[in-house]
């Protein structure tokens, strides 16, 4: 490939994310072949300049690198197992949402078929692809990451986390866990203030400002967790308990279900019952990880 040639890419799977990835690659000048199990999702991409492939084997043959953006781990095998021979010697990048152990299984499968495998976790929604703020985390084959890095950076900021193919997925789902906890915490708060006639729209700016400010405490929490010395926390568990009990009481009085805050109260109560009242809230990490520390 000369300096003026662009990487030829095959994108397998044209859900919203697959279409966004394919469109960004086409606009970035990459010869892009697209395939989807259900026909009819590629017309806009073809209009942009992508080539529609009737089958996966043809798509793979046209490409330097194959990008799988499929429904789940099972779909990856359903689509790729029959074309493992065509993939031999190719670079395969899996951007399907797969659990870390599934990513590692795919890496072993790929190695057994002579396929160079890189796994990725997408930290973005489809409209963000190709724009600022989008990030994709990668792990697995370093050679694939380095060889195609300039192409990957057309999609999003690209960060590499080492040769263990499951690491990117682990980061992905760890970050998503925090995101969903934040979202559902907001939903709980919106349900509370709604009982006083406050709209979610009015509540959102105040919640955004508060959560953004509180997020600045994460590095300090992280330092305590990594030290393992929970006596160094700013506030002990016994300080948090009455505050959280009041949150639960206020929620109950407002008629808001405790599905979100109830489990957090249970975690705090368990720390207190186990004699950890003088330790920091961060000590919950030890219960969650089952370390018993």
TrEMBL record:
- Chain ranges of the NADPH-dependent reductive aminase-like C-terminal domain: 164-288
Residue span, 6-phosphogluconate dehydrogenase NADP-binding domain: 9-157
Q: Which UniProt keywords apply?
A: Oxidoreductase
Q: What Gene3D superfamilies does UniProt report for this protein, alphabetically?
A: N-(1-d-carboxylethyl)-l-norvaline Dehydrogenase, domain 2, NAD(P)-binding Rossmann-like Domain
PANTHER family, A to Z:
CYTOKINE-LIKE NUCLEAR FACTOR N-PAC, OXIDOREDUCTASE GLYR1-RELATED
Q: Which family does it belong to?
A: Belongs to the HIBADH-related family.
* Designated name of the protein: NAD(P)-binding domain-containing protein
Taxonomy, top ranks, is:
Bacteria, Bacillati, Actinomycetota, Actinomycetes, Mycobacteriales
């Amino acid at each position: 490939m000369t300096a003026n040639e662009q990487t030829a890419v095959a994108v397998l799977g044209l859900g919203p994310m697959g279409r966004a990835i394919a469109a960004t690659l086409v606009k970035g000048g990459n010869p892009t072949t697209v395939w989807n199990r259900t026909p009819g999702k590629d017309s806009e991409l073809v209009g942009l300049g992508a080539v529609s492939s009737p089958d996966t084997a043809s798509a793979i043959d046209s490409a330097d690198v194959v990008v799988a953006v499929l429904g789940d781990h099972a779909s990856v095998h359903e689509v790729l197992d029959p074309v493992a021979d065509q993939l031999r010697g190719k670079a395969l990048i899996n951007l399907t949402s797969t659990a870390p152990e599934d990513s590692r299984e795919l890496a072993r499968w790929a190695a057994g078929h002579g396929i160079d495998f890189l796994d990725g976790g997408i930290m973005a929604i489809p409209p963000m692809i190709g724009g600022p703020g989008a990030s994709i985390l990668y792990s697995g084959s370093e050679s694939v990451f380095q060889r195609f890095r300039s192409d990957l950076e057309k999609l999003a900021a690209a960060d590499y986390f080492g040769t263990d193919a499951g690491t990117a997925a682990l980061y992905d789902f760890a970050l998503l866990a925090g995101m969903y906890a934040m979202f559902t915490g907001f939903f709980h708060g919106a349900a509370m203030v709604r009982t006083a006639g406050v709209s979610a729209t009015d509540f959102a700016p105040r919640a955004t400002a508060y959560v953004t400010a509180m997020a600045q405490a994460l590095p300090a929490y992280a330092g305590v967790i990594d030290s393992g010395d929970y006596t160094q926390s700013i506030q002990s568990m016994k300080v948090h308990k009455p505050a959280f009990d009041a949150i639960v009481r206020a929620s109950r009085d407002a008629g808001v279900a405790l599905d979100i805050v109830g489990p957090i109260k249970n975690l705090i109560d368990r720390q207190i019952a186990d004699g950890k009242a003088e330790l920091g809230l961060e000590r919950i990490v030890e219960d969650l990880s089952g370390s018993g520390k």
